[in-house]
Write a structure and sequence with these properties.
The strands form two sheets. Strands 1-9-8-7-5-6 form a six-stranded parallel beta sheet. The radius of gyration is 20 Å and the shape is globular. It has helices at about 10-15, 30-50, 65-80, 100-110, 130-135, 145-155, 165-175, 195-205, 220, 265-270, 280-310; strands spanning about 25, 55-65, 85-90, 115-120, 185, 205-210, 225-230, 250, 275. Among the domains are: about 55-135, 3-Layer(aba) Sandwich (Rossmann fold); about 160-280, Rossmann fold (3-Layer(aba) Sandwich), CATH 3.40.50. The chain has about 300 residues and is of the alpha/beta class. Strand 2 (about 55-65), helix 3 (about 65-80) and strand 3 (about 85-90) form a beta-alpha-beta unit. The structure holds NADP nicotinamide-adenine-dinucleotide phosphate. NADP nicotinamide-adenine-dinucleotide phosphate binds near residues 188, 190, 193 and 282. Its EC number is 1.5.1.5, 3.5.4.9.
Length: about 300
């Protein structure tokens, strides 16, 4: 959804104000951009299946009976199906050990019919989550959770991106937000969201400041940001008074009751562009997952073909 595909509404144009006090921020519509990304992934999935006779396939692994996690997995399976991507569902009991989960993930990694693997996060507390993530073959890590994926993002090398950070960058690009030289403040440093989004912003030549629960004077630091990424997990945490007028605000948070990490009503009076919750970052996460599953299928097929060609 570059502007050529989808012109900014007059409200969104007005959301880049010379005088920010008299207008509200434009919305960065993740739902619409995600629909475009998924439509392209679906076309590629269909072409792949016609070419190879094989349907791209995402394996989802759910451990335990957390209702929110079960809902997320179901949603990802439904969206996969709609996009012509097959899915394999593995549901393990809450008392699954790290070794058992690792063995399951290794089995899926070795299965040629599975192209992408998603381990729903978080896993029950007794499991070594890092060990489980690292059991996923990096070539099938379509959710971008392995150290390999993190290193690829950090070194700006090809590889799968963590889906939410990758989706955030795509949103910023689609809305022509200048990244080079911009000061981006990331609030949160989790391995799947805060840290990788900072790495991707850095790779786009932003000047990145990471903040977290031990950061002093957080509001003052946020006030210096051209771009704010809120990835905290606390409802309405970022206040409008923390924002520089005209800042671009990405609210990655998703808290109970469809509430983001940014006080939307306050922030909208100050920011130039802002992602709504819901309908901002969330849909982009699933869109990237599906896109990367098709990428994985294509890459694995190329590898097999190359190996066959090498034998002849
Ligand atoms: P997380 O692992 O709990 O990390 C939260 C981060 O926020 C930590 O780095 C923590 O700092 C920091 N933090 C906590 N309190 C803070 C404070 N008072 N001041 C500054 N920083 C503070 O959470 P996550 O997995 O990154 O998720 C963050 C949010 O994004 C949640 O709302 C989650 O639901 C949402 N999310 C959305 C999507 C999506 O698809 N839209 C995907 C993933 C996550 P420390 O490191 O110092 O503890």
């Amino acid at each position: 959804m570059t502007n050529a595909h989808m012109p900014l509404t007059s409200e969104e144009v007005a959301g880049r104000p010379s005088s920010p006090s008299d207008v509200t921020a434009g919305l960065m519509r993740g739902t619409e951009l995600a629909a475009e990304v998924v439509a392209k992934a679906a076309d590629r999935a269909q072409a792949f299946q016609q070419r190879t006779g094989v349907q791209p396939c995402l394996a989802t692994v759910l451990v335990g009976d957390d209702p929110a996690s079960a809902t997320y997995v179901k949603m990802k399976q439904n969206r996969s199906k709609k996009a012509g991507i097959g899915s394999v569902s593995v549901v393990l009991p809450a008392e699954t050990t790290t070794d058992e989960l690792v063995a399951q993930l290794e089995k899926l990694s070795d299965d040629p019919a599975v192209h992408g693997i998603l381990l729903q996060h978080p896993v029950p507390g007794h499991i070594d989550e890092r060990a489980a993530f690292e059991a996923i073959d990096p070539g099938k890590d379509v959710d971008g959770v392995t150290m390999h994926a993190f290193a690829a993002m950090a070194f700006d090398e090809p590889g799968f991106r963590s889906c939410t950070p990758g989706g955030i960058i795509r949103l910023l690009e689609a809305y022509d937000v200048p990244l080079a030289g911009a000061h981006a403040v990331v609030i949160g440093r989790s391995p799947i969201l805060g840290k990788p989004v900072g790495m991707l912003l850095l790779a786009s030549n932003a000047t990145v400041t990471y903040t977290h629960s031990k950061t002093r004077d957080l509001a003052d630091i946020v006030r210096t940001a051209d771009i704010v990424v809120a990835a905290v997990g606390r409802a309405n945490f970022v206040k409008g008074s923390w924002l520089k007028p005209g800042a671009v605000v990405i609210d990655a948070g998703y808290n109970e009751g469809n509430v983001g990490d940014v006080d939307f009503e306050e922030a909208r009076q100050v920011a130039s562009l802002i992602t709504p919750v819901p309908g901002g970052v969330g849909p982009m996460t699933i869109a990237l997952l599906l896109e990367q599953t098709v990428d994985a299928a294509e890459r694995q097929n190329e590898t097999v073909q190359q190996a066959e060609a090498d034998l002849t």
